[in-house]
Each structure stands twice: as structure tokens, then as C-alpha cells.
């Protein structure tokens, strides 16, 4: 199997770009990622574009403006995991020797819906009962507060940390620090979650260039090896579901660590799916960053920020950077690439050598999530 490397990465600032098209959002990220990699459009073998709401042929509409044609262009919809799934497909193409250079794009424009929760599939029985995403995560938060030695202040502390990290990130949608009091006093969304504990609606795009080892050597650019790429779909469970043990993430993380020969304690920097504050606490445990039941204490002790065991969401995460759904998985990969190559500026994690990104996608009746993608990355010497 060939090794796969990221050699170029870029994104645009996440935010409300109401007058931009999908092409307008993605093209700057595409061109900047190619420039960073030192590749021309004619050297690409394939393009994979992750999105959720772009419509037909989104990838083709983007790359034609860059003069890219005739090569395979594949569009991927896997809800919030779409961009990460696109990266997984590129990894597989390089690993199995089908291609030497693959451009991965993640893009979405959520301002097209005018606000509110994102549209879900109407015939889903849980959706019919009002199980939109804020409600689902609010139920998780209630269960967490019941079972764990945790408080509303612990939930707020996740958002405080996200905003503190995001304040250092010029690509983040929200760049202002907030206090726990401000978080708790913000508008109620789904009890116990308040507005500042929910990721914002916005638009954005990111791109990475994934290449083979032979092409990496020729390019001579800063490189990060993708040491594992795991994609799982959900397993249906009738009746009771343990909302504090998301099996899809536990299983994906386990398989990724095994494939890479890496332990959770080896990881220096993580970008995880914190669409709501409670998610970060649950995923500390699912990703093996702390022992089961220990996530609130892990957060309180400062073990998930600068100076701690591992820096989680130095970008500000989805809570601060924003969550344009299909773009998020690729934006996570961009952040990890910048961190491992020393290009993260004021939010740089000192000595970062191993990174992890994690994103889940969508809710379906009977499933924890529809998709989960975990990637592990290693700095190339």
C-alpha cells in the first residue's frame, strides 16, 4: 500500500457569505491549496468534493472555473461527515495506487436557509417527533448531568474554551472571548443548551491536496502523512440507546488507533466534532483522551487546552470556527496540517507531531449517527 500525504491546504474565513455562490466560496481555497502544494491543475488525477446542500455537480461547477476538466470528479454527501468522507476517498485512491494527486474540497452554504435548524428528512420518525439536532444533544446533556459529576458550568466551560481558542484564529466565524456567565445567560435553545453552546450557522470552504510518497518527494513541500483513515456508518439499535456512549465514534477511533499503531496518549492536537458543548465532553471519552466518566474533570484540570495533555480544537472548533457542514471535515484536516507543519500562527501547539480529526454526520432514527470519520496524521520528518 502506498502512503498518502497532505502537501497543501487552505480555507477561507468561515462566516455569513450571503452573496457568494458555492463556486465563489470554494475557488479561493482550491487555488491556494494547489499553490501551497506547488501543483498545477494539470497535475491532478482526481477531485473529490464533500458537501451537503450544494445540489447536483457541485464539484464540477467549482473546478471548471479553475480550468480543471476531464479527470474524475466525485461528489460526496455524508451530512456533516461529507468533507471528511471525501478525504477518506482520496486517501484510499492514493493508498491503493489509483492516483498520485487528488484534490479534496469541502464546501457548504447554510445561509441559503435563512436561519433556524437545518432541514432533515421529513419521513424520519424521530424527526417527525421533533428530534432536531439541538434537541438530540440537549437530551445528551441532560443525561450527562444526571450520570456524571458535572454541572451547567462545565457545559459552559467548553464554549468558553472554544471562544478563547477561536479568538486566535483569523478563519473563525466568532473571534471574541466570552465568560461562563455570558454563555449561561445567552438565549435558551434546548434546555440545558443555550445559544453560545450551539455551533453557528454559516458558510465556508476548505481544500487539501493529497499525494503519493513519490510525488511528495518530488515536490519537496512540508508534508503530513495520513497514518489512518476510518469511515463507519451507524448500526441500528431498537429501543434504549446509551447517549453517553456513541458506539460509532468509539469504534472508529479504536480502528484508527489500531491502523496507525498510535495510542490516544500519543496525540498532541485534536479537532473533534463539537457542534454542541456537550459533544466535546462525550467525545473526550469516546476518543480515549480520558477515562470513561472523567471528561468533566479532564476539562476542569486544563488537560484539553494549551499546557495540558492534548490541545482540543485549537481552531475554536465548530462552536467558534463555525460549522458549514460539508466543509468542516476538510477544514479540520487543514487545521491539523497547519499545526503539524508549524503554520498555525498565534494558536500553534508547540511540538505537535501527531494529530487527530473526528467528525460525525447526521441523525437517523435508530442510529447514533449516520456516519463517522476519524483521521490520524503524523508530521513528516
Written account of the structure:
With 381 residues, this protein is of the alpha/beta class. The chain folds into 2 domains: 4-113 and 202-223, Thiolase/Chalcone synthase (Peroxisomal Thiolase, Chain A, domain 1, 3-Layer(aba) Sandwich), CATH 3.40.47.10; 125-200 and 225-379, Thiolase/Chalcone synthase (Peroxisomal Thiolase, Chain A, domain 1, 3-Layer(aba) Sandwich), CATH 3.40.47.10. It is 34% helix and 19% strand. The strands form 2 sheets. Strands 3-2-4-7-1-8-12-11-9-10 form a 10-stranded mixed β-sheet. Strands 5-6 form a two-stranded antiparallel sheet. α3 (82-95) crosses α13 and α6 crosses α10. It is globular. The two termini are 20 Å apart. The relative contact order is 0.20.
Average residue pLDDT: 94
Instruction: Please give the share of residues in helix.
Output: 25-40%
CATH class of the largest domain: Alpha Beta
| Largest sheet descriptor | 10 strands, mixed
How many helical stretches? Answer: 13
Structural class by sheet pairing and helices: alpha/beta
Q: Uncertain regions: pLDDT < 50 for 5+ in a row?
A: none
CATH architecture descriptor text of the largest domain: 3-Layer(aba) Sandwich
Task: List its traits.
381 residues, alpha/beta, Peroxisomal Thiolase, Chain A, domain 1, 2 domains, ten-stranded mixed sheet, two-stranded antiparallel ribbon, 34% helix, globular
In short:
With 381 residues, this protein is an alpha/beta fold. The protein has 13 helices and twelve strands.
Amino acid at each position: 500500500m502506498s502512503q498518502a500525504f497532505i502537501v497543501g491546504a487552505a480555507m477561507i474565513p468561515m462566516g455569513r457569505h450571503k452573496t457568494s455562490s458555492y463556486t465563489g466560496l470554494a475557488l479561493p481555497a482550491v487555488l491556494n491549496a494547489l499553490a501551497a502544494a506547488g501543483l498545477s491543475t494539470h497535475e491532478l488525477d482526481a477531485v473529490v468534493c464533500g458537501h451537503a446542500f450544494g445540489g447536483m455537480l457541485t464539484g464540477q461547477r467549482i473546478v471548471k472555473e479553475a480550468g480543471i476538466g476531464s479527470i474524475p470528479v466525485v461528489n460526496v454527501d455524508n451530512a456533516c461527515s461529507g468533507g471528511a468522507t471525501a478525504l477518506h476517498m482520496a486517501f484510499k485512491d492514493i493508498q491503493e495506487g489509483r492516483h498520485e494527486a487528488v484534490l479534496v474540497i469541502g464546501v457548504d452554504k447554510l445561509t441559503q436557509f435563512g436561519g433556524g435548524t437545518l432541514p432533515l428528512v421529513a419521513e424520519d420518525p424521530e424527526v417527525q417527533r421533533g428530534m432536531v439536532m439541538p434537541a438530540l444533544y440537549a437530551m445528551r446533556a441532560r443525561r450527562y448531568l444526571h450520570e456524571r459529576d458535572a454541572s451547567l458550568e462545565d457545559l459552559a466551560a467548553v464554549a468558553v474554551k472554544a471562544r478563547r481558542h477561536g479568538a486566535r484564529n483569523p478563519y473563525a466565524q466568532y473571534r471574541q472571548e466570552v465568560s461562563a456567565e455570558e454563555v449561561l445567560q445567552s438565549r435558551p435553545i434546548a434546555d440545558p443548551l443555550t445559544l453560545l453552546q450551539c455551533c453557528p450557522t454559516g458558510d465556508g470552504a476548505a481544500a487539501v491536496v493529497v499525494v503519493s510518497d513519490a510525488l511528495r518527494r518530488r515536490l519537496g513541500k512540508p508534508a503530513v502523512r495520513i497514518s489512518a483513515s476510518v469511515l463507519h456508518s451507524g448500526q441500528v439499535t431498537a429501543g434504549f440507546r446509551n447517549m453517553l456512549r456513541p458506539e460509532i465514534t468509539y469504534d472508529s477511533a479504536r480502528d484508527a488507533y489500531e491502523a496507525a499503531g498510535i495510542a490516544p496518549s500519543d496525540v498532541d492536537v485534536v479537532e473533534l466534532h463539537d457542534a454542541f458543548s456537550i459533544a466535546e465532553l462525550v467525545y473526550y471519552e469516546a476518543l480515549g483522551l480520558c477515562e470513561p466518566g472523567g471528561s468533566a474533570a479532564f476539562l476542569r484540570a486544563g488537560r484539553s487546552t494549551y499546557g495540558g495533555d492534548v490541545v482540543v480544537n485549537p481552531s475554536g472548533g465548530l462552536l467558534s470556527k463555525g460549522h458549514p457542514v460539508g466543509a468542516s471535515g476538510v477544514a479540520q484536516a487543514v487545521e491539523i496540517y497547519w499545526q503539524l507543519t508549524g503554520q498555525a500562527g498565534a494558536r500553534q501547539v508547540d511540538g505537535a507531531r501527531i494529530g487527530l480529526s473526528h467528525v460525525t454526520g447526521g441523525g437517523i432514527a435508530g442510529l447514533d449517527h449516520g456516519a463517522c470519520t476519524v483521521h490520524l496524521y503524523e508530521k513528516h520528518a
